[in-house]
Amino acid sequence: MSSHNKETNSQNGSVTFQSFPVLKDLPKLSLPALAPVQVNQRTLTLHRNVAGDFGFNVRRTQFPDFRGRLRAVVFAEPTEVRCGPPRPSDIRAGLLPGDQLVKMNGRSVESLGREELLAIIQNSGDQVELTVRAMPELAELCDRTQRGVRDTGDSLMLPPVSNTYLDENITEDERYWLMHKNGYTMARMIETQSDGKVHVMVAGAEMVVDVTDVDKANPSNMDRVEDLARLRYINETSAVHVLRHRYGSGLLYTNAGALSIICMANEQEPLLCNKLVALFKGCRRQQMPPHIYASAQQAYRKMQMSGRSQCLILTGVTGSGKSTQLRNVCHYLCEIAGWTKSLSYGKISAALGVVEAFGNCATRLSKNATRFAQMFSLSFDAAASLRFASIRTFLLDSSHVVKQANGEANFHVFYYLLEGAEPELVQSLRLDSITKPFRSPLIREEDKNAALLGWSRLKEALSTLGISAAHARAIFSLLAAIGHLCCAGATQSPAQKAQFVRASSAQHAAALLSVGTDQLASAVFRGKMSSGGQSGPGNVMNRFSLSNRGQNGQEALEAFVAHLYNELFYAVVALLNRGLGATNLATTTSITIIDFPGGNFNAAWSEESQRTSGLADLTYNYLNERIAELFYDTSFTEPIELYDREQVEVDIEKPTLCPHQITRLIDQKQQLLNCVDIDLRSEERRGLLHILDEEALFPGATDDSFFERIFVHLGESRLIRRGCRPREFVLGHCLGGSPTVYSVNGWVKAAQPNVSEGSVLTLLHSSRDAAINELFSPFGMTRSESATLNIRRATQAAKLDATGLPTACGFFSNISMQTECIISFARHAGGVQFVHCMQPQPPSEDDGRSTGSEMLLDVPFVRSQLRSLLIIDAARASSRGYPERLSFKDFRRRFQCLVKSSSSLDDVLDDRAAAGRILEDTGVFPHTYRLGLSQVLLRSDVLADLENRRELCLSGLIVSFQRACRKHLSAKWLARRRTLDSAIRCIQRSGKCYIKVREWSWWRLYTKVTPLLAAARCFRFSCLRFSTS
Question: Which residue ranges does the record assign to the Myosin motor domain (predicted)?
C-alpha cells in the first residue's frame, strides 16, 4: 500500500482518487452481503404400507443455529435407509435422514406439538402429504446425484447466488477483492501501474493501493463451491469468501484438496444420526459432500483397497472441536464395519469419556481443553470388520494437577468426585476434609449440574467397560489421596528435612494408599522407602545436593503428586484398553485417529490477550508446530520429490515460509557434543528446550541466566525477540503470524530432575490394598498392555548418571521423544489424511465460547488460521498437481474394461504403453494426467470420471451375472417345487384310496387282525425256542 496520501486529478479534472497508508479509515467499507439462502422444498405423498404406517418417524427437538440460538425443529425421518448416495427416486418420492418437516397435509407444523402431529398422522387416510426440506449437507448430497461429479458450480439446491451485494455491474476480468482491516470488499480494477501499485475503484471512490492488497475474485456461482481447489482463482480472500458463504448457509464442512476443513463454533452440534451413516457407506470421495463422515469413509475405503493402515490427524487451535470430530469418526466406523458386534460404539464412547475426564480441563479458551495427546486405533481383520480398539496416550503436562494458571481449572475427574460422590463414598474417602487450595468450589449452578452428570457418566462408563468395582474403588482412592496430599502441604525447608504441614491430611492419604505415614513421607521427601528399600541410589552425594538448587518440601510434594497422577492416568488407560478388547492381536490393518492439545494461538485474538504463556503452553504449541511440519512435508515436499523421481514436470513450488524453522528453533539438538573444542561446542546453536535442559542440570542456574542464554544462541533468528517485560520473549508461531508471549518464570525449576519420580511406583507396589497393587503391577499384563508400557517407558524414561539422577535426557527428551513417537507413527502409516478444525470467531474469556458478535465469521481470525497451515498453498498445489496415483499394473487391471483388448506385443508386455493407450482411447485430456516411470499421475476429477465409466461398463456385466444367478436359483427352486408337487399328489392319491376302503368290512377286519398276527408269530417263535432247548 502506498506510504503517503495524495490527491490528483485526471485529464478532465473531474476524478479524484486517494492512496491510503492503511485501509482502516475508509468510509462505507464492509463485508459483502450474504446471498439469501433457501433450500428447495419437496412435496411428497406417502401411502400406508402393509404394517399400517407411512414408514417415517416424527422427532421434535431444539436445534442450534450458526449463532448458537436454539430453535424448534421437526424432523421427519424414514424408518429404513438404503446404503449409498440417494437415488433420484428416493429424492423425488421418499424421505431422507435429516429432512425437516415444514407442512403436513398443507398445515404448518412450526407451532404444533408431538401429540398433535401424531394425531394428524392417525387421522390421515391411506395417504399423507408432507412438505420437507433437506439439511444443507444432505442437500449437497442430493444435488450431486442429479448434476454429476464434474460440475463445479453452486452445490446447493438453491437459486443462483444473488449479485445484489455488488455496487455496480463489474465484469469478471475487473472483479477483485480489496483487503482491509475488517475483511474484504469488492473492488473494480482500473489499471495496473509499474511501481507495484494498482488503481481500483471501491465504494464509489478511486484509490491506489499495493498489488498485495487485492486478490482476484471468482465468479459468483462459485461462492459455495465444495472444494477450494476447484476455484478458478485460488487465493486467500476467495477462500475466506467461500468459507463465509458456506458457514452462513449452514454448511460447516469444506474441502481444500485432500484436506478437510470444519468450521464450527463451540456451541454448535452437527446433526448426526445412525441413518445418516448409510448415505455415506460405500461411497467414493467424489460421490460425497464435504463431511466428517466423508473423511472417515475415504480412510476406510483406502484401507480396504490398499490393505494398509491409515492415519487421520485432527488439527486446530484449542477449543476448535477436535475431540468431537474424533467421536464422530469412531461412530461412523463402528456403524459401517461393526457387523460382527465385536465392539460397539457404546464402549468406545465410554472409553473416550473416561480418558477425557482424566485428561481434560477447563481453560480460559475452552471449557473442555485436552491436555494429552492420544492415538486412538481401530483395528480391522482381513474382511475389514472392526475387531477391537486401543488407546495410546501421552500426558504432556502432569504438573497441571498441582499448578493451574489463572483462569484454569483442574482435571474434570476431581470435580466429578468432589461434587457427585455418594455420602458413603464421601465418608470413606474423607472427601469432606479436602479444602482449599485444591478444592475450588463451583460457583455456577450449571457447573455443579455438569459435575453431577459427569460423575454418573463416569461410573456408568467404568461399568460398561467391565472394570471391576475393586479397581474403580482403587482409582477413586488414589484421586482422593492426591487431594489429601495437596491439602497436606509441606514445609519450605529442604526436601530431606521437610515434613507435612497438616498431618491429618497426610494420614488420610496414607490410609487411602494402604501404606504407612512414614513410608509416604520418605517416598515424597527423600525418594526412598523407610523400610530400607530404595527407589534408586539417591543417598549418594551429587552436585545438586551441594548446590543451592535442591528442592524444598513443597516442590518435592508437588513433583510426587504430579508423578502419582501420571501413573494413575496410564493405569486407567491400560484398563480401558483391556475393556476395548485390545488383548486380541489377530488383525491386519487399522485406522488411527491422532488427537492432541490445540495451540493457544487464538489467545491473541481474545479479549484479554496480554496474558503470558508458560512452559506447558510451549509444549502444546511445539507439538502443533511439528504437526504443521508433517502437513508441509505431506503436501509439498513428498509430492515434489515424487514428481522428480517419476521425471514429471509439474508447476509446483514450495512456499517461501515453512514451519521447520520454528521447530528447529525449539528442538534443535547439539551436534558437537563430543567435540574437544570447548569454545566451538559452546558456541554451537541449539534449540530452546535443549538450552532449558542444560540450565536445569547446571548448579546455580536461574531463570535469568536461562533467559539470557536463549538470546545468546537464538538472538539472530527473526522468529524470536525479547518481550516488553523482564523474563519474557515472543515466539513467532504459525509462520510468524501468531506471535505468542512466554514468561520463563519457574521454567528451570520445572525442568530439573527430582528424586521422587522413581519412588511413586515403589510405594504403590508396597501397598497393602490388593486392587492398588494389581493396578500398577507389571506382572500379569497382556501382550498389548506390555507393548504399551514399553512405549511409554521408552518415551518417558530418563537416562541415569552415577548418582541415579536423570542426566541431560530429562525434560527435553521426554517431550521430544513423545512427539517423535507420534510423528514417526504418522509418517510410517499407509496413508495420512488431515482434518483441520477451524473456529469461526475468537473465544471469549469467560467460558471459552465465541464472542457472540453479530458477525457470522471473523474474517481476519479465519484468515490467520488458513495461513497457519498453508492451506491455500496446499489447495493450489493440489489443483496444479496430480494427487491421484496408481501403478501401471493396477491402473491397467482396473480400467482395461473401458477399451477393447489389444493383442499387440507392446500392450501385452508394456504396462506403461497399455495405460497410455487406455487414457487416449477414453478421451482423457493430456494435461489432466502424466505417465511417470512407475505409475500414472491423475487429477482428482479424472479418476472420478474413470471410476464412473468403469461402473457403467461393468454394470451390464454385473446385471447379466445377477440375471444368470437368479435364473439358476429359480431353476433350483422350480425343481424342488416339482418334486414337492409330485410328493403331494402321491400323498393325495393314497389318501383318496384309503378313504374309499376304510369303511369296507374286510378292510376293517384286516386292520384288527394284522396286529394279532404279529403277536401270534412272536408266541409261536417263543414256543419253538422252548421246545428245542
Answer: 223-951
Q: Is 30 annotated as a binding residue?
A: no
Residue 867 has pLDDT above 80, yes or no: yes
In sequence order, what DSSP letters do the residues of 40-71 get, joined into one string?
A: PEEEEEEE--TTSS-SEEEEEEEEE-TTS-EE
Query: Which residues, 6+ apart, have CB-to-CB distance to 34 below 8 Å?
Result: 165, 244, 245, 248, 249, 856
CB contact at 8 A, 130 and 46: yes
d(CA 617, CA 600): 7
For the ranges 158-167, 239-248, 369-378, 504-513, the lowest mean pLDDT is seen at: 158-167
pTM of the model: 0.85
CA 463 from centre of chain = 26
In angstroms, rounded to a whole number, what is the distance separating the alpha carbons of residues 213 and 696?
47
First to last CA, the chain: 133
Q: Judge contact between 57 and 79, C-beta under 8 A.
A: yes
CA distance 920 to 931: 12
- Are 837 and 316 in contact by the 8 Å Cβ rule? The answer is yes
Beta strands at 205-210 and 197-202: parallel, antiparallel or unpaired: antiparallel
Q: Is 528 helix (H, G, I), strand (E, B) or coil?
A: strand
Three-state secondary structure string covering 192-237 = ECCCCEEEEEECCEEEEEEHHHEEECCCHHHCCCCEHHHCCCCCHH
Supply angle C-alpha 433, 436, 442, rounded to 5.
Answer: 100
Residues paired with residue 183 on neighbouring β-strands, in sequence order: 180
Give CA–CA dist 620/889, Å, rounded: 44
- What's the Cα-to-Cα distance from 270 to each of 63, 72, 276, 296, 321, rounded to whole Å? 9, 15, 12, 16, 11
The backbone torsions φ and ψ at residue 205, rounded to the nearest 5 degrees and listed phi first, read -125, 145
Under a CB-based contact definition with an 8 Å cutoff, are residues 793 and 763 in contact? no
How far apart CA 789 and CA 424 sit, in angstroms, is 35
Single-letter code of the amino acid located at 995: I
Cα(522)–Cα(507) distance, integer angstroms: 13
Q: What is the pLDDT of residues 249-285, one digit of tens each?
A: 888 899 999 999 999 876 666 556 777 888 888 888 8
All three cell numbers of 178, joined, read 480489496
Q: Is 320 annotated as a binding residue?
A: yes
Task: Flag whether 321 is marked binding.
Answer: yes
Is 318 known to sit in a ligand binding site? yes
Q: Which residue has the cell 528424586?
A: 755
User: Is residue 322 part of an annotated ligand binding site?
Assistant: yes
Give the percent of the chain with pLDDT over 90. Answer: 43
Q: Which of 663, 577, 652, 602 is nearest to 627 (CA)?
A: 663
